[in-house]
Amino acid sequence: MAWRSSGSTNETLVENLARNGLITQDRVKKAMLAVDRAHYTPSSPYQDSPQTIGHRATISAPHMHAAACESLLPYLYPGVKVLDVGSGSGYLTHVIAELIKPDGKVVGVDHIQPLVDLSTANTRKSDEGRQLMDRGGIQYIKADGRLGWAKEAPYDAIHVGAAAASFHTELIEQLKAPGRLFMPVEEDGVQHIWVCDKKEDGTVTRKKDMGVRYVPLTDAPRT
Ligand code: SAH
């Protein structure tokens, strides 16, 4: 799947993702067109593949960001609240903020301070990103994302950008009813995306989706 949607500009990358059926929703396309991936990774930004961003982290491939947005889309509307665990480069945090502006809020949590600083600097490279940050539409926080971020809970949608070893109860607890959690989970050395829905009556269903390869959701590195 990687590579075949690569482009030479942000626009051609997004158009190719749409042509190949990896973006099917107009709102997702519009949001990804609004955020230049080059602001979030200096190397090969328009290739449909992950890129290293330092600190053993990677910015995920554009088709994975598209898949996350498409899955969470029914819960992404102006005014909602979203948690992005393992926000890394900040790219997806910004795309989600585009989907829920003008009055939505996305909290990006990463446990590595230099990555929190990087995501902040990346987002501030564009006028739209700067405005979103200044208005409080995006907030980056250093914390252990396995515990969620209780202060802003509950969330209409939660995205996890690193592979978890289990379904962390805090994340499920911090989901609104209704709400949706999109997260990679590793079991027996194999990772899959799981989509957990909390229904209006509070019951939770889990659905196993595609096989993936994410960096692990871990303890913070010793400094
Ligand atoms: N969505 C990001 C993915 C970055 S890679 C992007 O596309 O840019 C995964 C990120 O998860 C890394 O930045 C890593 O620092 C972070 N991470 C890993 N374990 C974590 C934890 N326990 N709490 C918060 N962030 C964590």
TrEMBL record:
<dbReference type="InterPro" id="IPR029063">
    <property type="entry name" value="SAM-dependent_MTases_sf"/>
</dbReference>
<dbReference type="GO" id="GO:0032259">
    <property type="term" value="P:methylation"/>
</dbReference>
<dbReference type="GO" id="GO:0006950">
    <property type="term" value="P:response to stress"/>
</dbReference>
<dbReference type="InterPro" id="IPR000682">
    <property type="entry name" value="PCMT"/>
</dbReference>
<comment type="similarity">
    <text>Belongs to the methyltransferase superfamily. L-isoaspartyl/D-aspartyl protein methyltransferase family.</text>
</comment>
<keyword id="KW-0949">S-adenosyl-L-methionine</keyword>
<dbReference type="GO" id="GO:0004719">
    <property type="term" value="F:protein-L-isoaspartate (D-aspartate) O-methyltransferase activity"/>
</dbReference>
<dbReference type="Pfam" id="PF01135">
    <property type="entry name" value="PCMT"/>
</dbReference>
<keyword id="KW-0808">Transferase</keyword>
<protein>
    <recommendedName>
        <fullName>Protein-L-isoaspartate O-methyltransferase</fullName>
        <ecNumber>2.1.1.77</ecNumber>
    </recommendedName>
</protein>
<dbReference type="GO" id="GO:0005829">
    <property type="term" value="C:cytosol"/>
</dbReference>
<comment type="function">
    <text>Initiates the repair of damaged proteins by catalyzing methyl esterification of L-isoaspartyl and D-aspartyl residues produced by spontaneous isomerization and racemization of L-aspartyl and L-asparaginyl residues in aging peptides and proteins.</text>
</comment>
<keyword id="KW-0963">Cytoplasm</keyword>
<keyword id="KW-0489">Methyltransferase</keyword>
<comment type="subunit">
    <text>Monomer.</text>
</comment>
